[in-house]
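Lecture 7 notes: from sequence to structure.

We start with a single chain of 414 residues. Read the sequence below before looking at the structure.
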Amino acid sequence: MSTTASAPRPAGTARRTETPDHRHQVVIIGGGSAGLTVAARLRRRRPDLDVAVVEPSDRHFYQPLWTLAGAGVVARERTVRPQRAVTPKGVTWLREAVAAFEPDRNQVRTDSGRTVAYDALVVAPGIQVDWDAVAGLPQALGRDGVASNWSYESVASTWEFLRGFRGGTALFTLPATPVKCPGAAQKIMYLADDHLRRAGLRDRSRIVFASAAGSIFAVERYARTLRQVLQRKGIETLFQHNLVEVRGRAKEAVLEHVATGERTVLPYDFLHVTPPQGAPDVVSASPLTGAGGWVAVDRHTLRHEGWGNVFALGDASSLPTAKTAAAVRHQARVVVANLLAVLAGTEPAAAYDGYTACPIVTGYRSLVLAEFDYDGQPRETFPFDQSKERYSMYLLKRYALPALYWHGMLRGRA
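Now the structure, written as tokens:
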């Protein structure tokens, strides 16, 4: 069946041809921020609901704090907790990976070969980080001055190399693919600038931002401020340049112009890479996929375009907004409301407007809190101009948002 069908198939109409190994009313694929937030909200709304989460990892990460871990502000150990400790009470955790989606049978298959049947399915496996998409990157990562804040294992090398940097060229990149928290590619760059100034090394250092995007930020209200930050800090920009190769031993980065294909070799002394990312292979190979390999859902109801009892949110969804935890918090409310409506036999009524937030750290004591919707219109929380750099907003990211995540989102309270 096409995932672009005009009307989703009603819940409960898919055929079942075998006895599944597990059966739950709601099955959630992915135990990251999206999956657990939905699970917690469902349990708070319907304590009687039988909910299962399919998640292979035994560790859960608060990834937005990896920027500060890479800048030496917090230890990376502060960003991780056991998966069992954050799984909501009453939710069944199936420690397996999904291997196949079978929406015509109302079930999924796991990597162990077991089948898990559902009345409603939530797809939230996150995004796939494709380190291999940049030639030479896997071999150079963690050595040769090459670091990345995009994994728990590699984030420690960011601060290690920054702390040992004594001058030269520091290169920061953003790829041509969608990425989780795209603003993080420039956040660590601003923090590096601050660190080098504090260490008395900025005058012997060159900082370059090579971005496949055409500008520093998509929403002009915040881009104006960030252009001023770039100018104030003396950071060079190479827009529409995508990193395609890392020559670790030679300490050279190969950049390709996204429009012309022309390649430039840029020597570096420190290289921070935002790796290419995409939909997980199991998603892009499934019947649920749409354009780009993402789970094809209605941008407002978050209901699948082809199957009425399937929903998706977060990084693996087709939603045309930034992939951030802040977006997930708003999406989860809509998914829960509409999923419960479907289980009750009514049509979804809750709507998501594309809200997302990007707290852009511009230094060790400053942050621009960008909040906007699908149309790029500001959706700001506070009664002041959030496009300005503020120390109070830095404190929000450093202290308040992690607490909101662990004690609010993951418990279904925020």
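The first helix runs from residue 33 to 45. Keep this in mind for problem set 3.
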